[in-house]
Structures
1.
Amino acid sequence: DAKLIVVGEGDYLPHLKLLSERLGLHDVVFAGRVSEAEKVRLMSGAWVIVSASIVEGWALTVTEAAACGTPCVAYDVPGLRDSVKDGETGLLAESGNVKDLAEKILTVLEDAELREKLSRNALEYAKQFSWDKTAEEFLKVLEGINK
């Protein structure tokens, strides 16, 4: 009974659309690029976001979702394991293991108590990040270089 909303564009989008059509999936929406306001609306209304990336830097979208109180299911890869605290702010699946990723998504969707815990923790975790704090820390690095 879930609806999947795919946001953004990328190399795999045509393949995903074709697969969705071939499988006859009617509860998949391809939103494409969205405004910041729409992104926040979608993240705030979601029970979970999913990042199936196998290569990632800091996952800003995961942090943005956490700031909306939305937990994440992602692969256990560098960058994502830094953005998602496994069992606290979301769940991490074995890298590249689609079945494990799907099982973790279902766990979050079906376990309301776990989902609420992850949501609360994600929101608290996101509060430690701000652009002001980032600028202050970066300034410290720059000042250290000039010494």
Note: The helical segments are 13-23, 36-45, 60-67, 80-83, 98-110, 112-126, 131-145.
2.
Amino acid sequence: AIAARGDGQWRSLCDVMGRPELASDPRFATHEARIRHQDELDAAIEDWTHTLDRYEVMARCQAAGIAAGGVQDAEDLNKRDPQLAYREFFGTATCDRWDAYGVDRFPARFNGRRPGVYEGVHEAGADTFDIVTSLLEFTDEEAAGLMARGVLN
């Protein structure tokens, strides 16, 4: 994701892309012109970015003072994001069905420490009985009967 604000950053982006001639191209010379020719502008930027790693694009743009960030998927967040790694945002949880798996953790710290208890994600249906009996006020027998008939999972 690249956000070049104003004509100055647009010229900087053109330089970063190795296409300084785009800055004076009438289709892109002003903000209004860039909006009118957005598809062509997107194509020119895509022509530059498609051969590069997204983090390389991000680094080059940021070095030139242009706001940019690699669009991240879950693996990127978990394995490649230096801010989240530094803050130990991801932890590990386990359950009976799976071995250890990665989970996002409560991000805040109190007096420099995280809360001690973290259960991770509950398996689908793990809380059904408790919810039906406590929140919906079914009796244990009613809930068990519905679960036995497959009405509740």
Note: Strands lie at 2-3, 67-68, 90-93, 101-104.
3.
Amino acid sequence: MPELVNYKLSTGLSLLALPLGMLAERRYRRLQSLPDSDIVGNLPSLSIIIPARNEAFNLPGLLSSLNGQTYSGKLDVLVVDDHSTDQTAIVARAYDAALLPLTGGIPPGWLGKPFACHQGALVAHGEWLLFTDADTVHTQDGAARAASFALQNNLDGLSLFISQQSDHWCDRLVLSVAHAGLFAGQHPSNHLLNGQFILLRRQVYVESGGFAAVSNEPLEDVALGNHLYQQGFHVPVMSGADIAQVRMYSNRKQMFFGMSRLASAALRWERSWAAFTVLLITALMSPLIVLQGVLRGKFHWRWLPVSWIAATLSLLPWTRRFGNPAWALLAPIGALVVQVAGVYGILCRLLGRGIPWKDRQV
């Protein structure tokens, strides 16, 4: 009887995926898309800052795209070499990027990426600063469109959710689940930014303290967004899928630890709203429990398609967005991966061990 109750609860929980999935989709659609509007004729000088730790493989794609920018103002590209042990510095020089090699250790109270970003900001010359990751590739007019929109709307900066790319269906499936969970639990007062594309006025960066104000935050972009909002600056996050694309993970191991890092740190910022994220991920995974009951002969088979269809329909908008609607049929498997990674990350935080990332513990 207790087993039957558990299977019934799992079926009921899977049905919750439908309203929670609709909630996530509605919140995502509220993001304003960066318009393809007129570009200002004389743009202010712009420094593009790239924190790079062992990014020799990714840098050619990024730097090629940045060298081809149609930007009317002065533009310079700065690669901050964060103690790389590969050919990062050689690749940066080969593509004519300015190079800032970090020497010595990371100071106490700092994590690697915010330290690299801050050091880059200190030496950059542009009136505007664009922080972007080494695994991104930008369209020719991307920087100009973003800067023009910020100027025309008198913004202190802006951040973009850009297009996600992957060579493997598993990555796309897991990212679909993760993004659905992110937006389902998006707290109204959580003013996150996306570290893959953050554009700021230099004056705003200096006055706010920039990454120095969030030096020890594992999710430095989310922390910076909230810090800027508390300081009274207007830096909206928008949709910019046609501005740039990113390939976040190069293998399954990196994807797992990436999900662990993001899931464990995100709970802090979403507070009680994180319950919606947890509920959606669990609801998407619940058909696997129903399947177990059916295979063991403990639960009637008719509930399996009901729960599985609910999970599939909930994830359908996201898998369509990430490349193939059919992947939604595997929603429970993707949710299981995200849930296991999230639990692992939380346990690491509680035990004070940190999570492996870029050959460091963060």
Note: The first strand starts at residue 46 and ends at 52.
4.
Amino acid sequence: MQDLKSPLISGTATTLVAFLPLIFLPGIVGKFLSFIPITVFATLVAALVLSLTLASALFYKLAAKKKIYHSDPAHEESLSDEEKAFLLEERV
């Protein structure tokens, strides 16, 4: 997650900065168009928070090493001796 934190924040920030001028448009058109950047801001900030917190926690939980190994004798017969030894070592 440390590797992806900077690109996520900078990508979100550049998009937010691009929509920033729409908030300050004057007149009735400005009031009408101000809902677009507000929606984009809320959506992107929520997505950033979720991607930095919940998504990484879910990945950590789902990508944990499994303690159950499935045996496929047909596939294991086609392995070389080195691959069989490696497989046996990993299962231990």
Note: The two ends are 29 Å apart (CA to CA).
